[in-house]
């Protein structure tokens, strides 16, 4: 089955919006062995939309259109479909009924803008939308199945899994594909490539190998496209894991926080955070994960010196003599957090995220990390030459990784930490 | 100037990666009045790449290719350019020199995979890369300027601003375009459309009006494409702001946290957070903003009951009798956080993010918010039927907005809060 994708919206061309929908579609299709062949994005321009619908539906089995089904004047998908297919717009009774129910549930009054959403090209079938006002459109044109979907991700997601995939499965068989993704942190892409070249001169042609940097995780992806490859894939997965050892976070999807939580689960330990320059990001990354409450007791975002002293018990003397960004303050932040929370282990970070606040001694990008248990606190000073948000993301990733390695009982540093270590 | 964009990478087709580069390119081009005409994305497939380079370079002035310049075997852009243009790959002395310098600065040894990056189609000019190993490629083909750029965002960004834009400016004049974007929170898109229809029957044709939902902010965008429109645009901007009143966050880019910080600056107040179900996300959103330290004293992520009691002084009696998700606990979390931090105002949230932890009385999605000053604490209970990450994002947005409205001195609720309020 050949699948093309057409995305529409001025916001996608103007850079206002980052498209995550095509990734969602690809991800939902992947387990069935369905791959996107080509993806085209155009603005809300009726002429260009018509051209692309015509072109993309010619050489493909399925064309999925995303966006342009909303109530406003710049939503042109139904109109373009009507023009290209020669089926004029008419009010669709099921679409109207859907709109009425949608409005009733919310205590809304349907307005004229909303009602536009009930007009579809003649001969279309509707695709129910469980959460939004716009129904999807299913229309055959020159032997191609055209499916128009709403641009709102939370509406697209269930429409894909509950409506579109079952419909396409009833038309097209799914192929065999099996993928293993291993999340890695602490090695660069070209180091990885070299390690593979050396360790696996006999890498089999039947397994595609790919690397993908998805900050902060580097993903190693093994893909088999032939049936009966399960065992071979499993065996190569294990070889890869053995080669990369402590740098392996786990199988994807796996975040830095999830890998750290996994170690906490293995060791039946719980943790706490004390954050200054990351401002709650470490805690937030951990608590994104369902069930984190069993291992994460809490955190203190001690942005002001006063909170460092009053809540965490950092000594005013240390703050005044060494400054807030210093080894002793990082250590005291961690011991304070461990004390007030009763946690077994923790992470503390204090640094200068910038763009202001740097000094000659401690320029922007300087950060002290402390991690470990009350009787075994490790520390490290880095100088990370990155802009504020990336600096915060990097410190968060490193903090979580250092605690993960601590729990794992290894003392190697991830490559980034070695590279930017202040000697 | 007509500009097409070709993105390449299996990760973009497989859904592994969300493309933010095209948005970056569009955003850097926008102030010059340069708009992207069409965007095509294909996988690492040499045949498809060659086809699209050929097609997309035919009807355009500029073709920008993004991705496929890396050291690994699936990086095919230089190869495809060589094939399409008929200029064979040869080692480019400047590219080689760049690679050598890049490696030297990092104490790396160049390997064979890296050296591949020095081979470019004959006749190419290189585009320096300040941060990465891959130089960009500038090549003329059938009257079109083809520019190949690296896929790593941090390498693309400076290459665009420092190399590509100045180069294109020297070739093409920039057009007039002026855009005003107003960030709004608390009104739905179709309510907005109706308000505009009613209030502005005389909306001028010379100003394009667009709405864009960029969760959680709704953006109202006014665009003028004719010279000399500055005054008119300014005047309509002010009319729009007056119409939308307290729902206006500010001019974009503006986050919920930035709008709240702006009010804190106006009132010369500082704040604190006490978070349970959002797990540090509110603090993290605030501290993303440079200079937030002058208004944000810190926060407590009191995930465990013990931290609620020990650090914030929430009474064990309240925790046992009313439960952690209750009005009195939200109030006590806020008063505790105000007390330990000495802040003027704050936000506290306690709720059930799910997927587990719900009860019949307090199902997943229940959240108590408390906000205001020690002598004037407001509370609200909502039941938000969203999945964990979206629930956390929504509670964060609402918490920040409720504090913003409090500081502004208005007592209207944003529409989402009214809709999901537990009566």
How does the SSE layout of this entry go?
2 copies of one chain form a homodimer.
Chain A: E1 3-8, H1 10-13, H2 21-29, E2 36-42, H3 46-58, E3 62-66, H4 77-85, E4 89-91, H5 93-105, H6 112-115, E5 119-121, E6 125-127, E7 136-141, E8 144-149, H7 153-171, E9 178-184, H8 189-199, E10 207-214, E11 217-224, H9 230-244, E12 248-251, H10 256-267, E13 271-275, H11 281-287, E14 296-301, H12 305-312, H13 316-322, H14 327-341, E15 345-351, E16 366-373, E17 376-383, H15 388-408, H16 415-420
Helix pairs in contact in A: 2-7, 3-4, 10-15
What does this structure look like?
Two copies of one chain form a homodimer. In chain A, helix 3 (46-58) packs across helix 4. Chain A folds into three domains: 3-171, MoaB/Mog-like domain (Molybdenum Cofactor Biosythetic Enzyme, Chain A, 3-Layer(aba) Sandwich); 178-251, Alpha-Beta Plaits (2-Layer Sandwich); 268-420, CinA-like (Maf protein), CATH 3.90.950.20. In chain A, the strands form four sheets. A six-stranded mixed sheet of chain A has the order 2-1-3-8-7-6, sandwiched between helices. A five-stranded mixed sheet of chain A has the order 14-13-15-16-17, sandwiched between helices. Chain A has a four-stranded antiparallel sheet with strand order 10-11-9-12. Chain A is an alpha/beta fold. In chain A, 50% of the residues are buried. The radius of gyration of chain A is 27 Å and the shape is globular. Helix content of chain A is 41%, strand content 24%. Chains A and B meet through helix 1, helix 2, strand 2, helix 8 and strand 10 of A and helix 1, helix 2, strand 2, helix 8 and strand 10 of B. Chains A, B: Residues 4-171 form the MoaB/Mog domain. Chains A, B: It holds the Pfam family MoCF_biosynth. Chains A, B: This is CinA-like protein. Chains A, B: InterPro entries: CinA, CinA-like_C, CinA_C, Competence-induced_CinA, MoaB/Mog-like_dom_sf, MoaB/Mog_dom.
